[in-house]
C-alpha cells in the first residue's frame, strides 16, 4: 500500500468542480477510497480520501489540486492517514447504524443541539445530516410548513433504552417529533402501510359519534373510561357500548361518514404513498360503515373493521363476526403481509391507542400518531407535532420528491 491522503476542499460552489478535482486524481492513477460532498446555500464542502499506490508520488497530484483550488478561490487542505488509522476507520464502518428524523413546524438550533448532545453522551457518532423539507422563505409566511431533517448516526449506545428515554424527553420538552429507526435494507423496501382509523385517519372516535346519535353519549363515555383504566376487559366493554347503539337507523349511519373530519395530512400521505406503489390498509376497532367509506374516498386497498348487526334497517346492538381488538389487528397485519408476499420488516403500522400496540410492535416501522404516552414509549417513532404526512419524512422522502 502506498500513501493515503484525505483531501478537503471548501468554498463557493461552481460548475465542474467535482469533475475537475476527481479528474486530477484519475490522471495520477490514484484510487478513491471514500468521497462525500454537500452544498449549503452556495458553499461546497468536498472530501476525498485517496490512495496513491506508489510512495513518494503524492507531490505532483497535491500540487495540481492546490493549483486548481487557487484558481477557483477555494480552500484546500491535506491530511496524511497512516495504515493503522485507516484500518481502524474501516472497522468503525461495521457499527450499527440508525437514522434520526427531527420534525416540527420549526427547528431551532437548541433543539438540534440537544438531540446531537444525546448522541454524544451515548458514544454515537453523527455521520451525515440531510434536510428533507423545502427551504423556508423569510418573506412569505406558510403556517402549514413542516421542517424536517434526517441524521445518520453510527455506533453502539451505552444503553439503547436510556438513549431512547433521553430522546423522548427532548421530544416532549422541546415540542418536536424525534424518531429513530435502524438503518437496514428493509428501511428502503417497505411496501405495506396499515393505519388505525379512529383518532388516526380521522380526528374522532366513531363509536362516540354513534353514541351521540343514539342519545347514549354519557353511558358510552363511562364504559370507555373504565376500559382505559384497565378496570374492564376491552371485548366486554366494546360489547356493552355497542349494545347502547341499539335503535340507530341505517339512514342515520349513512349520513355519518361524510361529516367526520380527516386528520391533518391524511389525504396527502395516502395519495403520495399510493403513487409510490405502497399497499395501504385500514385496520380498525371502529366500524365498517366508516372504514369502507374511507377506503373508497382515499383509494385504499383494504379496510378491516367491526360490522354492526343491522336488521330491517335498525341497529340491533350486536356485532357480526369476531371483534377486531389489539390481538386481531396484529393477526390481520401478518395475514396482509403474507398475502402481499412481504416480510413483516417491510410493513409500517400507524396508530394512537393501546389496542394498536400489538400491530405497531410487530411492524418493521411502528409509528405512534398523536398517541397516549404509554403508546409513544413503546413505538419506534412518534408523530404529534406535525400532520399524518410527517410519515413521509420518516420514510426519508425529500420534499422535492413529494412535489414531483
Please provide a written account of the structure.
The protein is α/β, with parallel strands linked by helices and 404 residues long. The chain has three domains: 3-91, ACT domain (Alpha-Beta Plaits); 96-183, ACT domain (Alpha-Beta Plaits, 2-Layer Sandwich), CATH 3.30.70; 192-402, 3-Layer(aba) Sandwich (Rossmann fold). The protein contains 16 helices and 15 strands. The protein has helices spanning 17-27, 58-71, 83-92, 109-121, 160-174, 206-214, 217-228, 234-243, 250-255, 266-275, 288-297, 326-339, 357-362, 373-378, 391-394, 399-402; strands spanning 3-12, 31-40, 43-52, 75-81, 97-104, 125-131, 147-154, 177-182, 192-195, 279-287, 302-311, 314-320, 347-351, 365-369, 381-383. The strands form three sheets. The chain has a seven-stranded mixed beta sheet with strand order 12-11-10-9-13-14-15, with helices on both faces. Helix 1 (17-27) packs antiparallel against helix 2 (58-71), helix 6 (206-214) runs antiparallel to helix 7 (217-228) and helix 7 runs antiparallel to helix 8 (234-243). The radius of gyration is 27 Å and the shape is elongated.
Helices, by number, come to 16
Unreliable stretches, pLDDT < 50, 5 or more residues? none
Instruction: List the strand order in the largest sheet.
Output: 12-11-10-9-13-14-15
Query: From the coordinates shown, what is the CATH architecture of the largest domain?
Result: 3-Layer(aba) Sandwich
Report the portion of residues in β strands: 25-35%
Shape from CA axes?
Answer: elongated
Backbone CA Rg: 27 Å
Mean of residue pLDDT values:
90
CATH topology of the largest domain: Rossmann fold
Give the % helix: 25-40%
Q: For the record, what is the CATH homologous superfamily label of the largest domain?
A: HAD superfamily/HAD-like
Distance between the termini: 46 Å
Total strand segments: 15
* CATH class identity of the largest domain: Alpha Beta
Amino acid at each position: 500500500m502506498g500513501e493515503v491522503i484525505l483531501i478537503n476542499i471548501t468554498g463557493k460552489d461552481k460548475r465542474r468542480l467535482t469533475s475537475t478535482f476527481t479528474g486530477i486524481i484519475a490522471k495520477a492513477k490514484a484510487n478513491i477510497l471514500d468521497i462525500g460532498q454537500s452544498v449549503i446555500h452556495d458553499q461546497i464542502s468536498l472530501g476525498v480520501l485517496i490512495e496513491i499506490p506508489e510512495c513518494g508520488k503524492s507531490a505532483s497530484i497535491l500540487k495540481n489540486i492546490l493549483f486548481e483550488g487557487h484558481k477557483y478561490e477555494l480552500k484546500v487542505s491535506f491530511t496524511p492517514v497512516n495504515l493503522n488509522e485507516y484500518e481502524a476507520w474501516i472497522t468503525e464502518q461495521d457499527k450499527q447504524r440508525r437514522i434520526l428524523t427531527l420534525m416540527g413546524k420549526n427547528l431551532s438550533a437548541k433543539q438540534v443541539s440537544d438531540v446531537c448532545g444525546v448522541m454524544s453522551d451515548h458514544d454515537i457518532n453523527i455521520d451525515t445530516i440531510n434536510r428533507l423539507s423545502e427551504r423556508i422563505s423569510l418573506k412569505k409566511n406558510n403556517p402549514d410548513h413542516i421542517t424536517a431533517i434526517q441524521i445518520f448516526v453510527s455506533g453502539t449506545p451505552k444503553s439503547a433504552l436510556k438513549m431512547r428515554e433521553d430522546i423522548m424527553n427532548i421530544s416532549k420538552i422541546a415540542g418536536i417529533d424525534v424518531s429513530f429507526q435502524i438503518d437496514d435494507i428493509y428501511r428502503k423496501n417497505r411496501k405495506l402501510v396499515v393505519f388505525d382509523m379512529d383518532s388516526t385517519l380521522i380526528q374522532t372516535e366513531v363509536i362516540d359519534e354513534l353514541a351521540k346519535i343514539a342519545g347514549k353519549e354519557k353511558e358510552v363515555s363511562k364504559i370507555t373510561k373504565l376500559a382505559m383504566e384497565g378496570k374492564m376487559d376491552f371485548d366486554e366493554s366494546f360489547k356493552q357500548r355497542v349494545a347502547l347503539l341499539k335503535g340507530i337507523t341505517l339512514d342515520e349511519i349513512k349520513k355519518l361518514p361524510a361529516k367526520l373530519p380527516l386528520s391533518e395530512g391524511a389525504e396527502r400521505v395516502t395519495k403520495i404513498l399510493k403513487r409510490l406503489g405502497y399497499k395501504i390498509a385500514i385496520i380498525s376497532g371502529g366500524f365498517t360503515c366508516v372504514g369502507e367509506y374511507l377506503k373508497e374516498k382515499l383509494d385504499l386497498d383494504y379496510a378491516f373493521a367491526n360490522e354492526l348487526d343491522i336488521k330491517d334497517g335498525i341497529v340491533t346492538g350486536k356485532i357480526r363476526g369476531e371483534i377486531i381488538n389489539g390481538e386481531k389487528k396484529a393477526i390481520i397485519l401478518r395475514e396482509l403481509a403474507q398475502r402481499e408476499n412481504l416480510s413483516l420488516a417491510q410493513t409500517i403500522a400507524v396508530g394512537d391507542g393501546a389496542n394498536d400496540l400489538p400491530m405497531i410492535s410487530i411492524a418493521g416501522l411502528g409509528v405512534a400518531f398523536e398517541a397516549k404516552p404509554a403508546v409513544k414509549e413503546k413505538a419506534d417513532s412518534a408523530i404529534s407535532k406535525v400532520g399524518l404526512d410527517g410519515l413521509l419524512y420518516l420514510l426519508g422522502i425529500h420534499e422535492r420528491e413529494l412535489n414531483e
